Amino acid sequence: MNIISRCVAICIIMQLVMAGCGNNVANNDETGGIKSVHVSQEDSMAFEYDAKRICVVKSGIDAVYPQYYMNDTLTRQLQSLYITEILNVAQDSADVQDAIATVLEMQIRQFGDSKDEVLYGIFPNKRVLHYSIVTNITPLQTKGDIAAFCKRETVNKDGEATVDTHHYINLDLTSMSRIDVYDLFAEDALSYVSSLLKNKLLEQLNVKDEDELIGQGYFNLDNITVNNNFYFNEKGGITWNYVTYEIACYSVGETQISLNYDELSPYISSKSRLYTYLKKHEI
Which pLDDT value is given to residue 25? Predict the structure, then answer.
């Protein structure tokens, strides 16, 4: 597979997220006990595709990350969690901004190796293929001991969006770990929650069965299962997000399905992270 075909294929399945401009850092207001910093970075590089074509790639990151939380020890733990769970960078990174720079480089390198690099400038008699990856990380409004983030990525080819995905990451500030579905429900309850999600989607789309669902561009009901791409919504329930191609074709785009506390309560044990969160904050 050539460089352009490979990079397009990779972009279609990427599940990152962001936007960027410049290289400035600005402090944000302190919320939820976390003092945050906003950082924007961008870079660009050109790769030789063949004798007649050049691939120019622009990569941008715009992120809000925790600068300080409670004390130095908890700050280091939270930043470490941010690096591994949100930026998806190995923990050997020195700090968050180093990790962000690593992400920037990783995004560009999906389009070509160093041996393919050419000087970025004017390319006479060559067609230029323009790609951009814009990733944005923003905090969500939560209560108490949870820090949640939305991670969005858009990929453009020649100015036209080809990918636009959102991922939601919830961090437990008490245990300094990522909250996943096993923190919410017992393993034997996941199939029941998945059934609730399937029925809710049929209701949202106003269709009566799987055949009608497929007619609207969804693959089949078996694709709709509990995943870790969720957030706690304002109504006291959970909203699950399914990115493009996960449960439906490209034209459908992303799908969100929400279940409220009353619907989920039969499957929540007293040890569930969801139970303690809802009870503590009386949502």
Answer: 41
For domain 181-281, which architecture applies? Alpha-Beta Complex (3.90)
- Domain residue spans in the chain? 3-178, 181-281
Task: State phi, psi for 222 to the nearest 5 degrees.
Answer: -65, -20
Give the rounded distance of the alpha carbon of 71 from its chain centre: 28
Tokens 């990152």, residue located:
16
The tokens describing 142, both together, are 């939560």
- Nearest Cα neighbor of 197 from 247, 124, 141 is 247
Whole-structure pTM over 0.70, yes or no?
yes
Q: What's the pLDDT tens digit per position in 201-250?
A: 999 999 999 999 999 999 988 889 999 999 998 877 899 999 999 999 99
DSSP helix/strand/coil, 39: strand
Q: How far is CA 189 from CA 52, 182, 195, 196, 223, in A?
A: 57, 10, 10, 11, 17
User: Distance between CA 41 and CA 2 in Å, rounded?
Assistant: 29
Q: Whose structure tokens read 């060559």? A: 126
**Percent of the residues in the chain that have a pLDDT greater than 70, as a whole number:** 84
CATH architecture of the domain with range 3-178: 2-Layer Sandwich (3.30)
